[in-house]
Amino acid sequence: MTAPAGSQSPSQRSPSEQEVRSLVERVLDGVIAADPSPAPEPKIAAPPESVPDVSDRIAIGADHGGFPLKERIGFRLKEAGYDVLDCGTDSHEAVDYPDFAHAVAREVATGGCRYGIVVDGAGIGSAIVANKVPGVRAALCYDLSTARNSREHNHANVLTLGAGLIGEALAWQIVEEWLSVEWGGDRHARRVAKIDDIERQYSKAEMSQGHR
Fold it and tell me: Domain extents for the chain?
């Protein structure tokens, strides 16, 4: 039987909206049934590694003579909120002060720590050693005036103390004063620049001799 003129056969008729939706639902049901695995969770990017903040980090070190005082200073620095890097020594056993003064000075010179504190019997030897490291300005301080002067005038970044010359109470007062005093700059900057220039002159001389 032929269809009336102008009409469409069932094969030619466009599907209704309801039929399209029904077909889509059947297709989706079939896909989900064929793959029951859950959808992968979105990946959360790991936070970037934080850059170490050295603004409050202090390297400390001592020989056997300065060990007890170094321990007390380190403890009180941590109580005050400073990040302390202990370069040793860790006992009363005899050691050589240049090794520990050098370790502390190197941390300051390379930017690992903002300041350094070294304790030995008199503080003199450690100051000499630390000042051999380029970029370090070490000062032996034995009272509040020298602590203040070394920071304000000399821009000292390493403090050395003599455990055989001062007691624990004065040593801590010196440390507090030394850390609290700001670099003065102005006319002192010109003089510290000359210190740095002398250091560079001899560094260049050593380099040129090494190439001969």
Answer: 57-203
The model's pLDDT over 44-99, given as tens digits with 9 standing for 90+, comes to 344 444 445 667 899 999 999 999 999 999 999 999 999 999 999 999 999 999 99
- Domain 57-203 - what CATH class? alpha beta
Query: Residue 34 and residue 208: Cα distance in Å, rounded?
Result: 76
Q: How confident is the model over 85-94, as pLDDT tens digits? A: 999 999 999 9
What one-character-per-residue DSSP string does the chain give? -PPPTT---TTTSPPPHHHHHHHHHHHHHHHHHH--SPPPPPPPPPPPPPPP--TTEEEEEE-TTTHHHHHHHHHHHHHTT-EEEE----SSS---HHHHHHHHHHHHHTTS-SEEEEEESSSHHHHHHHTTSTT--EEE--SHHHHHHHHHTT---EEEEETTTS-HHHHHHHHHHHHHPPP--THHHHHHHHHHHHHHHHHHHHHHHHT-
CA contacts within 13 A on the Cβ side of 139: 23
Q: Which residues are catalytic?
A: 153
pTM summary value:
0.73
